[in-house]
Structure formats: C-alpha cells, structure tokens
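Class, look over these structure tokens:
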Amino acid sequence: MSKASAKPIKPLHTDSIRTFYWTEDALFVLDQRRLPLKEEYFRADSLEKVRKSIRDMLVRGAPAIGIVAAIGVYIAFRELSKKAVSKITKAYLDKYMKRVKDRLSSSRPTAVNLFWALSRMEKIYKEFMSNLTSEELDKKVLSNLLMVLRDGALGIWQEDITSNLKMAELGASLLPEGWILTHCNTGALATGGYGTALGVIRRAFEVGKRISVLIDETRPYLQGARLTAWELSKLKIPGMIITDNSAGFLMQKGMVQAVIVGADRITLNGDTANKIGTYSLAVLANFHQIPFYVCAPSSTFDLGMSSGKEIPIEERSAEEVLYCTGKRIAPMQAKALNFSFDVTPGSLISAIITEKGIIYPPYEENIKRVLENRL
C-alpha cells in the first residue's frame, strides 16, 4: 500500500470505507480492480495518473469519478507550478486549463458527473482569472490559484457526502422490509462517502428495518460480487450474491420486495443510464409489479438531454468479457460485445431519489420542479 507523507485533506464527514484520500503530495485512489482480495492505493500525483485512475476503472461510480476529476484539476495545476516555466501569462494558463479539461473529459464518456465537476472547476478557474489585471503572472498568483482550486475540489467532495446522507434519509422511508435487490456498486466506493442506492439500504438498516440484500454479481466486471458484497460485509448488513440471470426467477418466487440502483446520467424525461443489466431488471420489476427505484444526486441529471436516446454509451474492451480474474474463459477465436451501460426508460422507474427530494412521475414535469426547489 502506498503511504502518504503529508496530512490528509478531507471533508467534514469521513466514511469508514475510504474510496480515496488526498494529501498535499498526491491523491491516493483505492484500486477497486483488486478488491476484495487486496486493498491497495494507487498514487496519483500527476494529471496523467489521475486520468489513468478514471480510465482504467481503479475508481468508478459517477459521483466518485467527478470528485477525482475535480481533484485532478488541482493536481494538474500543482504539477505546472513545479515546472520551470519562464513566463506565465493568462493566455498560457487558459490553454493549459483547456488541455486539462480535455484530457480528463476523455477518460470516460457516459458518467455526466465527470463533465459536471470539470465544468464547475473551470468556472472556479475563470472567476479567479477574471479578477486579475496583469497579463503576465507571478508565482504568488499561481499559488493563490492553487488554493482556490483546492477549495473548489474539496467543496465538490463535501457536497457529495452531504447529498449522500440526505438521499439516504429520504430513500430509507421508501424501502419495505424483506429482500432488496441491487445492481453494480453504489456505496461509499462509488461516491465521496456513504453511498447513493446502497446508502439508502444502509440507512434503512441503521434505523432498524429488517432487510437483506440480493447482490447482482454484475458481469463482466463483477462490481456486485467484488465490491458491494465487500462493503456490506464491512457494514454487517446481511446479503447474498446472485448471478445476474437469477433476478427474474427470484422475483417470480416472491423473493424480491424492491429494486434500487444508482445512475450515471438521467435525462429530462427520467430515462436513466446505469450499469449494463439495469434495463433488464426494470422490465422484470415492472412485469412483477415490484417497485424500482433510482437514487442519484442532482449532479447526475443532464437536463440538456430530452431523452436517453441522446446518451453516449461507453463500449469497453472485449477482453473484460473474454477473461475473468486474468484467465481466459472463452475460446481463443471468440469475440465479444461489451457495452458498459444501458438506458432504462423513465416509464419503468417508480421514483428517483435525490438530495433535493423524491421525484415521482410524470418526470418531464417533476424533475425540473424538484431540482429547482419549486415545491
């Protein structure tokens, strides 16, 4: 495990499960590819290393990706401050900011939180630069800019934790007792702390509801079997891993009382992009008249998109399907199709839990109303 040589930078609330931690030296990202067998942190002390941690799925989960990207902007500018640049001008920094944003934006295409966080950091940068009167800048100005970017990234992290806790309180009231089915990983590992959909389950359990969790293994990356099961074991919440194709049969047997999942992007009509396999669960839940809930912070909504047809869907390497734990499980000549996400129509979603309130259909009307606090 990598060791930090400086005092950690952290928000007011810290979770027992550390997805990442941040010091003045570097960002240390828990390599989720190695869980649950190893807990190793990757030292990301440069723009390219932060990009690698997102692109190669050391960190995953839309909120966590956004936070890491925000911290990545700070790290990129700190990296610049250590270089021997003979002349620093506004124009030079503007070009550098664009390069940083472009590099981090290209790491993952579907999770809107990534682009939201980078746009937020760019806005912070532009507000700082607009107050400068001289074209040529000195080291003191760059030092002040670093402080502003540092505080901006920390603010994004803190806001995510606060919204997680709020969503957990609101969503816990919706969950019935019994078996709750979830897909992929939506806990502290996918966020700044506590969790979205898994945070709702966690809070319901904390307030005394008798619930157990059915954990979809979530092929091909096994985020459920490796990560959600790992989190639940740490939290001492009862659960059982199931194969992804077991869900329909268990619903038929009456063994599923509710389904709750996270989201990577939600459009104006409630269409929701989430880990591949979510759409199948929603169709099954609808057929069996089981409530199907989505839990996501307001930063996951993309109100510039009218429907899920506009969402870019990431297609990842076929190797993730053809191999498992480093061993090939398919014939050498076999090929594979590996879409990482699918889109669930809003018509199949019972409610969307956000930190600003629970949103019910019709989504075209209620999403904007709740997000803009027009009660």
Observations:
- The domain at 169-371 is CATH 3.40.50.10470 (Rossmann fold).
- The chain has two domains: 20-164, 169-371.
- The mean pLDDT is 92.
